[in-house]
Amino acid sequence: MPLRKLSYLTLLGLALITAVSVYFVAQLRFNYNFNDFYPAGDPDLDYYQQYSARFGNDNDYVLLGLEAPEGHSVFEPGFLTKVDSLTRFIQQRRHVVHVTSPTNATNPVVEGFGVFNVPYLHPQEPARRAQDSVLVYRTPGLVGNLIARDAHAVTILFQTAPNLSKPPGDSLLAAVRTELSRQGVAESQYHLAGKMVAQSVFVDRLQWELVVFMSLSVVLVTVLLWFTFRTWWGVVLPLVVVLGAIVWGLGLMSACGVSIDLMTALLPIMLFVVGMSDTIHIITRYSTELGYGASKKDSLLIALKESGFGSGLSAITTSIGFFTLMTSTIRPIYNFGLFTGIAVLLTFALSFTLLPAMLVLLRKPQLRVPRAEGHSWDGVLGRLFRTVLAQRRLVVGLSALILIGSVASASRIRINSALLDDLSKNDPVKLDFAFFEKNFAGVRPFELALQPAPGRSIYDLQVLRETEEIETYLQKSYGLNFVASPVTIIKSVRKALNGGLLEEYRLPASEAELQQLVRRVKLFRKKPEFRALVLPDASAGRLTGRMPDVGSIRADALNADLRGFLRQHTDPNILQTRLTGSANLIDKNNENLTLNMITGMSIDIVMVTLIVLLLFRSLRMTIVVLIPNLVPILIVAGVMGAAGVSMKVSTSIIFTIAFGIAVDDTIHFISKLKLTLLHERSLFKAVRKTYLMAGKAVIVTSLILVGGFSTLIFSSFDGTFYVGLLIGLTLLFGVVAELTLLPILILYFYKHKPKEIRQPLAVKL
């Protein structure tokens, strides 16, 4: 079949696949499901899902903080009237289950067979202001929870429908903001926090940043391609190939029912940057042969022949780098690794089908400077090669010193994360969350499942006493600023039966008194604040609370101490407990981060080792190849340690991805060296020739990779910022190691044994 006809058929087939992909891409949706970041398949997750089905989710709420005007107290009638109006407005909104506010908080009193709820605050009776404020500060659970300790702010907490999605959640938040504006509350005087708030902000920013960073990457790569090839086809053809691979990758992701989240949002940018490598190697070799006078057909065949082997191996190693992320138990990371790895292979396929087809159908291009450009690169690379060899002792010595310092600094890296890790310190959303950390109980939920021993009820006096002891520990030693449990119900019932007196807010002294209280519990069971603390049959209970977001390191230490306390002070024959909750699951991710990262890196290194062993049949050559790619990883680890960057969900993927990408150029280099050694007896000349042939493509692809990833440093998400910065640094250090350490190491180890490399290759080919 004629080459041009085959090219037309190839383009037609690829166009049909692309059309199908575009159809699926149009159906892609953005998603920020908090639950997706829990460790999939973990027994604790299964338990939490069962726990949530019985008691409700611990993060289906929104906190609305209102600051009183400067110089005024929250107890002033005008401010309380506004709070009460907002409370009523929110209570009437769709998807709001219950609202807890200072103006609807009541002190229940039982008289006869009825319960009278006496409000703590009376905005319409200014004369009772002093009396009300004294009662509020004496009542447990109000100050620090609904009213700030300095009496300059209040919180309205509204419980929402379970797992409320973004559209209705956004509508609810918009309605609240509109009402706040209507009542004259300035934006600086109110604060919103909760999963729904974070969900809304994250998805909106994901959509915006995806467009912005993709646009920046296209512009930056276009400029670099133009300065490299100085031809329109040298710019357009790589862009067409890579954009086609992105459409295919996103289409496949959509067809598999996967949405774009915080991790998969990086796929288009990652693929756009990484996918340029193969096309640049092909076009570089193609234009070089054209510059030396070869025909279009011969130039293309030589470019495909010489680039195919190295590009195939690099596509495998790069995709493996992404596929190893599938060892993660976090679903977004798993999906990101799977589909980006597949997309890398799709890019390779398009580079050797779509790109050659377009080059065949285009006229033979006229290079602006046919030979001078090649000589210019040869001259620069030749001088660099000579300088590196002349200063090899200095290069090796500096590398060793930097490596030692990096390893020492890397030992300071800690695995730590917080609930809003991906937002910068000065982000408005994070500042709002910090407001509740400073003035109220905090935003980190705490959950402890309470299971009475067989034959006991959650309302047994011994069970309640052990629960109260746990409550006391959690408030005094653990750091809970707000706590509620079945003990809260019994104490509240006792207080209500004794005229609402605060001194009666305690557990009963005897079983007989307790039984009288239990019979009255049904009067309180329907109260929203008590409904989710005990199952209707009293077979299980829940201890819930809130605290500041102390980070996973501190939380792990607190949880270890709590487990020790529970072992020593809780009798399993009376009460059994289990730590659970969304925050606990997020902390659990950190326990797996190190293992996942080590597993991923190990798989990546083993696969690269096997490839080099098959390529060179030499263990020493394998070590030589690995060193220039591991050194940049260790240096960046040192940078993380020195800068105090913690290891967390978003940064844990950096090393695996960086190694998989960085080794790409090394694979191209040694594959070209392999071909050169087939007809070059001198190892020195073979290395020098390879250096000149591969150097341009190595430098250009590295500049594009570093430039592309550098656009991510403008992200408002810290995780994305560090992915861009640290992978960019890794690749920058990698190209330096590639052009300095790699030729030195090859010549040092194989200077007198060229046959050790050449002979097996000749047999192989």
Automatic annotation (TrEMBL):
It is found in: Cell membrane. The keyword Cell membrane applies. GO terms for cellular component: plasma membrane. It holds the Pfam family MMPL. Keywords: Cell membrane, Membrane, Transmembrane, Transmembrane helix. It comes from the Bacteria. Residues 239-361 form the SSD domain. InterPro entries: MMPL_dom (IPR004869), Mycobact_MmpL (IPR050545), SSD (IPR000731). It is a multi-pass membrane protein. The chain crosses the membrane at residues 6-26, 210-229, 235-253, 265-283, 333-362, 394-413, 593-616, 623-643, 649-670, 691-715, 721-750. Its main location: membrane. Belongs to the resistance-nodulation-cell division (RND) (TC 2.A.6) family. MmpL subfamily. This is SSD domain-containing protein.
